[in-house]
């Protein structure tokens, strides 16, 4: 049975970290987590919300870490982009196994396994109810998948970025290290940048700020939270946007 359509959003972009696909594993892709994410994305799609996805590659290779170990930064970043393609193909497979039509579009041309990124084609896929997974970041080194998510969301006119994390929102300090850390209900773009709140990198935040694109930061580790983040974002995590910062 199709879920009740959430109020508000017609088109979203879901940003998943590569680490999210690991589940309880220490490396690679957890089949259990992959299936769970696919099922939750299907619930969103069935509700009538057009859904695009950007997946990181940190569960396989992270460019910045490769560079710190002596590797050329550009080469390391390209390797990280290829890791996102692997994750995107895995998510596509999981979605199509449960009947969700999906397209992977890559910023690096690899015609045998993915479409090239073409904005108009991506929008057309979304209008037809297909999930579009954007792979290989922006196709350029020195840019993160957070920046890729912001850029693609703006290009396809998404109404929000849903950023899935391992914590239930944005805090004034690391809740894993500080038991007294306070969660924000709403935080402004400016405060994210000035307080270095680690929501996304500064380039991604600046893009969202310039284009008034809101970001919902929520906890992916709890089942059902993707749909809840679409339905009622201020109850499930932290909303980042224009306005006055407020604690939960």
Features:
19% strand, 9 helices, globular, alpha/beta, 248 residues, Carbamate kinase, disordered N terminus, 10-stranded mixed sheet
What would you say this structure looks like, in words?
With 248 residues, the chain is of the alpha/beta class. The protein has one domain (11-162, 199-205, 213-232): Acetylglutamate kinase-like (Carbamate kinase, 3-Layer(aba) Sandwich). Helix content is 38%, strand content 19%. It has a 10-stranded mixed beta sheet with strand order 4-3-5-2-1-6-8-9-7-10, sandwiched between helices. The two termini are 34 Å apart. The relative contact order is 0.15. Residues 1-7 have low confidence and may be disordered.
What would CATH call the class?
A: Alpha Beta
* Approximate shape: globular
Helix content: 25-40%
Strand content: 15-25%
CATH topology: Carbamate kinase
Count of DSSP H/I helices:
9
Q: Count the strands?
A: 10
Low-confidence stretches: 1-7
Query: So, CATH architecture?
Result: 3-Layer(aba) Sandwich
CATH homologous superfamily label: Acetylglutamate kinase-like
Instruction: State the domain count.
Output: 1
What does the average pLDDT come to?
92
Rg of Cα set: 17 Å
């Amino acid at each position: 049975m199709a879920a009740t359509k959430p109020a508000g959003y017609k088109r979203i972009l879901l940003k998943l970290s590569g680490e999210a696909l690991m589940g309880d594993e220490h490396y690679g892709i957890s089949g259990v987590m992959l299936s769970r994410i696919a099922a939750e994305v299907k619930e969103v799609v069935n509700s009538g919300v057009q859904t695009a996805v950007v997946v990181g590659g940190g569960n396989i290779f992270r460019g910045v870490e490769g560079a710190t170990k002596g590797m050329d930064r550009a080469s390391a970043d390209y390797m990280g982009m290829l890791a996102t393609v692997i994750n995107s193909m895995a998510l596509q497979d999981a979605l199509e196994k449960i009947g969700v039509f999906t397209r992977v579009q890559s910023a690096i041309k690899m015609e045998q396994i993915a479409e090239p990124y073409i904005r108009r084609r991506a929008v057309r896929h979304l209008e037809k109810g297909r999930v579009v997974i954007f792979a290989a970041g922006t196709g350029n080194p020195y840019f993160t998948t957070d920046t890729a998510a912001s850029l693609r969301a703006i290009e396809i006119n998404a109404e929000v970025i849903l950023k899935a994390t391992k914590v239930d929102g944005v805090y004034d300090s690391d809740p894993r290290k500080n038991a007294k850390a306070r969660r924000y209900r709403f935080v402004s773009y400016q405060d994210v940048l000035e307080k270095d709140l680690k929501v996304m990198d500064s380039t991604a935040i600046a893009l969202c700020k310039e284009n008034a694109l809101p970001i919902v930061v929520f906890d992916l580790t709890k089942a059902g939270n993707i749909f809840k983040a679409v339905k009622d974002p201020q109850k499930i995590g932290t909303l980042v946007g224009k306005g006055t910062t407020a604690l939960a």
